[in-house]
Amino acid sequence: MADEDDAKYVCTLTDFSLKKAIRELNEDPKQRLGSVQTLRKWILEQPHFTCRTDTTFLLAILRRAKFSQLVARQLIDNILTIRTKHPKITVNYDIQDASTMAYIDAGVFLYLPKTDKDGRTILLARPGAQNLGDPRFTPDNEIRTMLVLSELYRDEDENLSVNGTLVVADFTGAGMKYMNHYTLDQRKTAISAFQDYNPERVKGVLIYNAGPVLEMLMGLLKAFMKKKLMDRVSVHTTMESLYKVIPMDLWPVEYLPDDYRGPSVGSINSIIADMKKRTTNAEARQRILSFTSDRYRIDDKKRPSGDAMLPNESFRKLNID
Question: Which of 126, 132, 240, 274 has the highest Cβ tally under 10 A?
Fold first, then answer.
């Protein structure tokens, strides 16, 4: 089912990303919009949910599903189920909200300016940077801000949906007080949102300086994280270990040795300033509000009998990335 949004779509993938999409994600540029239209048609036929049908969103879903219509449908069902069950963290995102700005100002989530050699976006998460005595820093707001920023950056750069994200979780300063800030249910919800709600491809999770909370943290991840993503988790106790995965020139200066004289991505404050500039874009603000409207939800009471996931057309059975 064609849409006027399809006519406006212009592929902004770099040559590197396009080749990867073809090689790894089974993307066929000639069939790309046809796949979007097939998925959109299925969405509009469903009586039990309302979902976004814009080209950008459906392409992100299809790329994570490696262009399997069946897997894409399962992803959409998962996303809408989480949205309906946890509206506090998933709906009506305002990128200029006071709590979101508090997390940005504190540098809790830093999207680093340069990608790595594989084109992966690097998200540096620093839970220890938040002030737990400030009422704006709550478990719900932390999860929500992570998802808000993911939505914003994915909307701005189509390449992110192909190359994925490398997450560095720096637990410096985040001790047992931080871990106990969350209830077990909130931890479970955070992990579920991270792996099942986000359409982007998480290509690795690097845990750094977890110290005394490492055992508790790994226990939570092993209990609630899917094996495929858990296999991408690595633990690091030194920056030298992290430099082997992410070269020194891709780090903020605060993460580099005092005697280092090579290139970097600038200071944490400069990265925060760039992120704040993005959130002041009025057009981006309205797009994100529209994309995360509370009208997109699922009603299981209206779910049709039988398996609505099964496509009428043939499909390839692929592993979700």
Answer: 126
Spacing of C-alpha 173 from chain mean position: 24
CA dihedral 234, 235, 240, 243 (to 10 degrees): 30
Furthest C-alpha separation in the chain? 66
pLDDT digits (tens, 9 = 90+) for 104-158: 999 999 999 999 999 999 999 999 999 999 999 999 999 999 999 999 999 999 9
Report the alpha-carbon distance of residue 262 to residue 185 in Å, rounded: 44
Residue 311 has pLDDT above 60, yes or no: no
3-class SS string, the chain: CCCHHHHHCCCCCCHHHHHHHHHHHCCCCCCHHHHHHHHHHHHHHCCCECCCCCHHHHHHHHHHCCCCHHHHHHHHHHHHHHHHHCHHHHCCCCCCCHHHHHHHHHCCEEECCCCCCCCCEEEEECHHHCCCCCCCCCHHHHHHHHHHHHHHHHHHCCCHHHHCEEEEEECCCCCHHHHCCCCHHHHHHHHHHHHHHCCCCEEEEEEECCHHHHHHHHHHHHHHCCHHHHCCEEEECCHHHHHCCCCHHHCCHHHCCCCCCCCCCCCHHHHHHHHHHHHCCHHHHHHHHHHCCCCCCECHHHCCCCCCCCCCCCCCCCCCC
pLDDT value of position 302: 95
Please check the confidence at residue 319 and state whether its pLDDT lies above 60: no
Rounded Cα distance, 266 and 257, in Å: 14
φ, ψ of residue 124 to 5 degrees: the values are -100, 110
